[in-house]
Write a structure and sequence with these properties.
The complex is a heterodimer of chains A (278) and B (337).
Chain A: H1 10-39, H2 44-51, H3 54-87, H4 93-105, H5 108-119, H6 126-131, H7 140-151, H8 153-166, H9 169-176, H10 181-210, H11 213-219, H12 229-238, H13 242-277
Helix pairs in contact in A: 1-13, 2-13, 3-7, 3-8, 3-10, 5-7, 5-11, 7-10, 7-11, 8-10, 9-10, 10-13, 12-13
Chain B: H1 4-7, H2 11-26, E1 29-35, H3 40-58, E2 62-68, H4 71-79, E3 86-88, H5 92-100, E4 119-128, E5 148-149, H6 157-171, H7 178-190, H8 199-207, E6 214-218, H9 219-229, E7 234-237, E8 242-245, E9 249-251, H10 253-259, H11 262-271, H12 275-283, E10 287-288, H13 291-296, E11 306-307, H14 314-323, H15 328-332
Helix pairs in contact in B: 3-12, 4-5, 6-7, 8-9
The chains are: A mainly alpha (278), B alpha/beta (337).
Chain lengths: 278, 337
């Protein structure tokens, strides 16, 4: 056998490539086509009309509010956590990493249920808060909490390997030259991690807007009040309003496509940068 | 708007929901009606009528917010703090559960006429065009070639009525014994490939996704499916025996007292008994209580042999015997077969 181990026969190569493309078409492209064709089933006008429904507008607005609170919060916490883990060695560091990754391994339904157990009328903190007239679950704060929990790891998880790889040399140099802590952060650390941070924020945002399971548990399904876009899709589908359901689903798909495009361009940039570093 | 109390305290959220907050304060009052799954269309129409009626009577604008899911799941959410002014659920047991925790008066069901159920319904069988499997009554469902769609009795109220309707047939058979009825239910649920959490989910599984040969459903849900998917797509089979389903309504005392919405919540529930609301209910395929309206729609709602929940000893007994942990449903249903 003088063929190298990595070299497949041309037939096998063609077969594998065809299979991959076929799978991509069936698994990715076909559902997208279905979403948009169902949204346009009754024409463009019907699709636009369904977007003008007050409950759908409320769902879109609520989704944006939740993302607007969740994403910056997780970006700040993620940078802090990644800095702490990427720059320092301390006892319990491994445990901290595991804790940060916990939301990845927990079922979204459980991620919602913990807030019900904490803030529900019969939960640990619920009775005290309710007496003060504050409602966390079945209200916007609950949706934000559940989404924050589910999307917490994205920024930290992207930045930890990056910061570990970069090392602290540049920051140490800055400090030696008399820069203050904040100066070092704004002029050295942040510029170094900016593309990785953007990448993490992007993933975090996509998940925050698309999350279903965790928010379904804490939502209470109040029309026009506590329905995010994914919940609204389900509600409209069950109302037999397919145009409405698939229009919102189409919006979410567009968001996913935009995320994908920005992600690809970021990956290309990060790739170029690391090549330049080498 | 349940979250306003907090958002006013938290700067960030307040800035974000600012435009919504001002809109909410402009409205005079808001009721939250927490309801079961198939009433989406019914309450959309009822709410519209009540809002204009209330405006005419008092001059006040009112908003009515709706929440829909499986009846059991909704009761659970209200227990966990969902701020429902009124609950309009599939069966009395789910509201009893709220009363036991002190959310509303124990005698809630006596506060309104007709067991607090302004409409009734029953359980029917929905089959595909031309009834290809020849399904005419309950015993046809346990045949080897039949697949049944019905939701999960643990989360859905309709599913519990479905269960009891089938059980009523088994118990009405000559020489029926506890073992024979339980065996019939066991055979029936062997023919159920998947349990949805709510009635509407089950209807969608059957009508939209094409699952199963027969849907055990609320009469109103079966009629609505024919309206939505085309009358020639499905036919309704009225079994030889079924159950009188009484979906009750109630005001949640603890919530209306805190929010100061008792008067409007009371008026809303009483409105359900008016001629106008009964007419709306009948149009949405619910059986009206009002005799005049009932006579008008008599053709649509054939007389049937109906047992009632009292034949099962009332909801307290039925819930414990059939649906609680270790009850008959747990004994007969093993998923994945």
């Amino acid at each position: 056998m003088n063929r190298r181990a990595t070299q497949e026969s041309p037939a096998a190569r063609v077969a594998l490539v065809t299979l991959t493309i076929l799978l991509l078409l069936i698994l990715l492209l076909l559902p997208l086509v279905v979403v948009f064709s169902e949204a346009l089933m009754r024409g463009f006008g019907a699709m636009v009309d369904s977007l003008a429904e007050t409950d759908s507008i409320a769902a879109i607005r609520l989704t944006m509010i939740v993302a607007a609170v969740t994403v910056p919060l997780n970006a700040v916490c993620g940078v802090a956590a990644a800095w702490c883990i990427g720059r320092f060695r301390f006892p319990g560091r491994g445990l901290l990493v595991t804790l940060i990754e916990l939301p990845f391994s927990v079922s979204p339904v459980i991620s919602g249920l913990v807030w019900v157990l904490l803030f529900g009328a019969n939960g640990w903190l619920g009775p005290i808060l309710n007496r003060a007239g504050m409602h966390i679950i079945f209200a916007v704060p609950g949706l934000i909490l559940a989404t924050t929990f589910v999307t917490f790891p994205f920024v930290a998880r992207t930045l930890i390997p990056l910061m570990e790889h970069q090392g602290a040399a540049e920051e140490e140099a800055a400090l030696t030259l008399g820069a203050s802590g904040w100066q070092t952060f704004w002029r050295v650390t942040l510029p170094n991690i900016r593309w990785g941070l953007l990448y993490g924020v992007l993933l975090c945002n996509a998940r925050a807007m698309g999350e279903f399971g965790a928010v379904a548990v804490v939502s209470g399904h109040i029309r026009g009040q506590t329905m995010t876009m994914p919940l609204q899709v389900e509600a409209l589908f069950n109302d037999y309003d397919w145009v409405g359901a698939f229009t919102i689903a189409g919006l979410l798909s567009l968001l996913a496509l935009a995320t994908l495009a920005v992600k690809a361009s970021l990956e290309w940039r990060i790739g170029q940068r690391s090549e330049a570093l080498l | 708007m349940p979250y306003l109390a907090l958002s006013r305290r938290s700067l960030l959220a307040a800035a974000a929901v600012g435009p919504m907050a001002s809109a909410a304060f402009a409205a005079d009052a808001a009721l939250l009606n927490v309801s079961y799954d198939p009433t989406r269309e019914l309450y959309r129409d009822i709410n519209r009528a009540f809002i204009s009626e209330w405006k005419k009577k008092t001059g006040d604008r009112i908003t009515i917010n709706q929440s829909h899911a499986g009846s059991g799941a909704q009761a659970r959410a209200v227990l966990d703090g969902l701020q429902a002014d009124v609950v309009t659920l599939a069966l009395a047991a789910d509201i009893d559960a709220l009363a036991r925790r002190g959310l509303l008066a124990a005698d809630w069901q006596a506060r309104l006429p007709d067991n607090s159920s302004p409409t009734t319904s029953t359980i029917v069988l929905l089959v595909r065009k031309g009834n290809p499997k020849g399904i005419h009554d309950w015993p046809d469902l346990v045949r080897q070639d039949v697949a049944i769609v019905t939701p999960n009795p643990k989360t859905s109220g309709g599913a519990r009525w479905n269960f009891l309707a089938a059980l009523a047939w088994a118990q009405a058979q000559p020489n029926a014994k506890n073992e024979s009825t339980e065996e019939f239910m066991h055979l029936l649920f062997r023919r159920v490939p998947v349990l949805d959490t709510g009635a509407r989910g089950a209807t969608n599984s059957f009508a939209q996704r094409g699952l199963g040969d027969v849907l055990i459903a609320w009469e109103n849900e079966a009629w609505l499916a024919r309206k939505e998917f085309g009358a020639d797509e499905f036919s309704i089979v009225y079994p030889s025996i079924s159950i009188l389903a009484e979906p009750p309504v109630a005001m949640v005392d603890s919530v209306v007292d805190r929010k100061g919405t008792r008067a409007v919540a009371e008026a809303y529930l009483q409105f359900l008994y008016t001629r106008e609301a009964q007419e709306i209910a009948a149009k949405n395929y619910y059986r009206p209580r009002d005799p005049t309206v009932a006579a008008q729609y008599a053709e649509r709602y054939p007389a049937m042999r109906l047992v009632t929940i009292q034949d099962f000893g009332g909801w307290n007994t039925a819930q414990a015997a059939y649906f609680a942990d270790g009850g008959m449903f747990d004994r007969i249903f093993t998923p994945g077969r």
